[in-house]
Amino acid sequence: MGTRHFVALSIGGIGLGVLGALEVLPPLPAHSAGAGLTAVAASTWQTDASVLGLAVARGRVYVGGRFTTVRPPGAPAGTREVTRTYLAAFDRRTGALDTAMNHDLNGFVWAVVASPDGSRVYVGGDFTRVDGLVRNRLAAFDTATGRLVASIAPRVSYRVKALAIGRTSLYFGGSFGLVNGVTRNRAAALSTVTGALLPWNPDADDDVYAIGVAADNSRVYLGGTFGTLRGTSRWAVGSVNTSTGALLPFPAASAVPLPTSTCVSRVKDIETSGSRVFFADAGDGRGCFDGTWAADVATGKLLWKSNCLGATEALAMVDGWLFKGSHAHSCPRTFADGSGTHFLLLQNPATGALGPWFPNTNGGPPTLVGPLVAASGGGDLWVGGDFTEVNGAGQQGLTRFTNLGADAAPLTPAVPTLSRPAIGQVQATVRASLDNDDVRLTYRLLRGATSTVVASTRVSSAFWSRPTVRLTDTTAPSRTTQSYRIEVSDGRRAVRGGYATVTVR
Description:
Elements (H helix, E strand, L loop, with lengths): L2 E4 L2 E3 L2 E3 L3 E4 L22 E2 L3 E7 L2 E6 L3 E3 L10 E2 L3 E5 L17 E6 L5 E6 L3 E2 L2 E2 L3 E5 L17 E7 L2 E6 L3 E2 L2 E2 L3 E5 L16 E6 L6 E5 L3 E2 L2 E2 L3 E4 L6 E2 L15 E10 L2 E9 L7 E5 L5 E5 L5 E7 L2 E8 L13 E6 L23 E5 L4 E6 L3 E2 L2 E2 L3 E5 L14 E3 L6 E6 L8 E8 L4 E9 L7 E6 L7 E9 L4 E3 L3 E4 L2
Antiparallel strand pairs: 1-4, 2-3, 5-8, 6-7, 7-10, 8-9, 11-12, 12-15, 13-14, 16-17, 17-20, 18-19, 21-22, 22-25, 23-24, 25-26, 27-28, 28-29, 29-30, 31-32, 32-33, 34-35, 35-38, 36-37, 39-40, 40-43, 41-42, 41-44, 44-45, 44-46
């Protein structure tokens, strides 16, 4: 497998640091986008309802949710459907349905996680039966055979919504109060070796939405709507011991505001990577904290906090970059100008600054939030949720982006506005174009039917910042009528706009 190096980029005050060598799928020439991902969605099967859980393991992507059928890419809703009740698998490289993975669950799947070696996939949710066998809200499948793992069959009393693995422990959270008849309020752990219930017991007083295990297995992070852990105040987030669930110091928790009558912010997802841990928040109330934040694992200190508004539901590390699925609509110093809702974004994990990668989805029913979950196997990004469109084209529930295939083309430039600043000179003015996986584009001023290049410049732009581009022809023949158009290129693809005409002084 190849490696790709990414250098510092900046746009409108957004800085992106050097991230070094990253292992990816066999690459094309590097895009300027974070993680090398093209913004053009790769062909992938769809679902007929929400995707809530994703995991990548051994060449497959395991998908859980509210859906009961799946269908090929491009197929309209209600056509060419194949039954898959709440759980399906797809080929990681092609996006095609894995026909061998076909199980009948009797309830929603809310979470999916793969073992570190990829040999198992664990699913949690509302189900109580899998293929007619008792599996009370938690089950495991062997990825080699697709069969249920007999030893993983705990009796969980209510919904499992979050899963994470740390060494030989499977941590899970949700809305339950009992596991195997033993009190475990909304968080518990099993041995992945024997399936036995472990002593780990953080004892949350309300729902747990997210669980993450530090990369060094030193602690477990919980997120949700709880107000206490083990009877001690811990609003929406906490750090606990991996074997007992005892509370650990976590000063970065101050990033989540305490609830008020006008603002309730909850932790919806947790992503751990190396020495850092990242959190996604969603808030109820105007201006309530909806963004992302990062903490140092060893010290528990807050590293940065991004205050974008628009609930953040999903996080995933993609070759050293932090993906977030949200319906961001206002970010300080970026698109606070009202440039619209954006559901797919990358962040620099060192600073939280937005990266230059801007594909998009819509927000579909029932939540209208759009992306709800994400996963990466390296060199790709899988996104699931409530959306029904990706980049303006029909695609329901599931999509993926890779570092293979064509990148996004620049937006065709407008017809330029022409002026005559001096004898023998023509100045062309046009609004900067957009490219969803490149921020620095080359603009050329073309003269006449032969498209002679008479001026060029490079300008950075993004959907929230489209400056004016000015190009001047200083060799225009005096007292002649000339036509001009603009060409914009990302270095691989070039597009040309229409002509404007002027009589040269």
